[in-house]
Amino acid sequence: MKSAFYSMFALLLFLSASPAWAGPELNRIREELKSSDPELRSDAALALAGEGEVAVDLLAPLLKDPSLLVRHSAAYALARIGGPDVEKIFREGLTAPGDDLRRISVLGLGMLGRADREGILPLLGDRNWEVRWSAAYVLGRSGDRRDLAVLGRLARSDPYRDPAAGSYPVREAAEKSIRRLNSIIGWRTDFTAAREYSLRSGRPLLLYFRGGGSDLCRKFEREVFTEEKIIDAAQRMTPVWLDHNSAAEVFSRYRVTRVPAIVIASPDGSRSDRIEGTLLPATLLDRMLAFLETEKSAVRLRSRLQASPEDLETAWQLAALYLEGGMADGAAQILNRIIERDPDNLSSLLDNALFARGYLAGKRGDYARSAREIDAVLARFPVFGDRAEALYCGGLAHLRAGNPDRGRELLEELGRDYPDGNLALAAGDILDGLAGKEPKPKSSRR
User: Fold this and answer.
1) What is the dihedral of CA 53, 57, 63, 69, to 10 degrees?
2) Are 65 and 41 in contact (CB under 8 A)?
3) Does domain 2-181 have CATH number 1.25.10.10?
4) Which among 65, 300, 403, 436 is least surrounded, fewest beta carbons within 10 Å?
């Protein structure tokens, strides 16, 4: 594995700092491609990255070169050139008889940012473990949460074991991809397909309109779409990334003339909310949750859930009402329903439900169980909406269960990662108390 994959990534790191060769040197490069020296052929392939579409026909045969280095260089050069012809070459390579061509084709599509689900998903069952590894790796960068279930099966049961390292590399790749998919907003770019999915799934559309050259949009995206609670709420919707350069007709359809802009719409279009210009993450979160959680009647939510037992969004809203009302037994029953019916987190509610169940255990005084369950959710979901709350509750549960070192560790992590939050202040007071320090006066707090 190391010789194949590490060389690929080392190559990409090197190239990111190296300018592409360009110029009218095609004749010389053609001769170097015939060299018996693989390093010379590799350099020639890299040089072609700067020649554009005219080089595609020269590079395509190199995907079958005897040298691994040359094959990787050719794939990288083709991905740098891009375009429909290159995409077609990589897509056709997905079904090639040669194992390595299938592997490189998957990685090539990944470098193009084209995770062809229909072509790549079957390769998760490929006979060659390196092909399976590549497919798992690329799907984790697709942002498509529909892949969580098949990646989950791969993470639990892929048979290949690396005898030298004593590890399961394909399982590890699938696990990393799962963590990535659970940690990001899975933006779609095809409005028509996203709207069809919204209608099928019942998830509202979250339409983000941006301008390709807008510094304001880029700043907004960095400051808002990286917030854990925003990610968590967006995962419960159908998020669509709409750049004016490629989706001008959707801008016209929704009469968007100012960016950034956000439109949240029910699948049937009967409800919508419109936000134009920048706003604070907390304000956007309130608007998103208000759109998701319009029903506040437990009676009506129970009726809706009885009619649609698989509607986990309704189940979560009912559990939240039970939690707010102090109905622990009712909440636990609904939380267990979510956990049992969605082991792969397709609903994006599994992390919330697991934490809420751990929280309930602490409320009941079962601190050991609470600590275990919160530790498990923090390990499985490095990013999720209630992570700060989980660190705080987990820290308290460990302290009360007689695990002071782990309790301090979680509370210190809370203070480092969320220094400006109220929970960090409370954690700081607890840590000061454990150290025998006097609590800080409120006037000195931030």
Assistant:
1) -70
2) yes
3) yes
4) 436
Q: Which CATH number fits domain 298-444: 1.10.10.410, 2.60.40.10, 1.25.40.10, 3.40.630.10?
A: 1.25.40.10
Question: How far apart are the C-alpha atoms of 375 and 398, rounded to whole Å?
Answer: 10
What SS3 string covers the chain?
Answer: CHHHHHHHHHHHHHHHCCCCCCCCCHHHHHHHHCCCCHHHHHHHHHHHCCCHHHHHHHHHHHHHCCCHHHHHHHHHHHHHHCCHHHHHHHHHHCCCCCHHHHHHHHHHHHHHCCCCHHHHHHHHHCCCHHHHHHHHHHHCCCCCHHHHHHHHHHHHHCCCCECCCCECHHHHHHHHHHHHHCCCCCCECCHHHHHHHHHHHCCCEEEEEECCCCHHHHHHHHHHCCCHHHHHHHHCCEEEEEECCCCHHHHHHCCCCCCCEEEEECCCCCCEEEEECCCCHHHHHHHHHHHHCCCCCHHHHHHHHHHCCCCHHHHHHHHHHHHHCCCHHHHHHHHHHHHHHCCCCCCCCHHHHHHHHHHHHHHCCCHHHHHHHHHHHHHHCCCCCCHHHHHHHHHHHHHHCCCHHHHHHHHHHHHHHCCCCHHHHHHHHHHHHHCCCCCCCHHHCC
* pLDDT band (50, 70, 90) for residue 337: very high
Q: What percent of the chain has pLDDT over 70?
A: 92
The token pair that represents 341 in the structure block: 């019916």
Overall pTM > 0.90: no
pLDDT band at 114 (very low <50, low <70, confident <90, very high): confident
Query: For 217-244, what is the mean pLDDT?
Result: 95
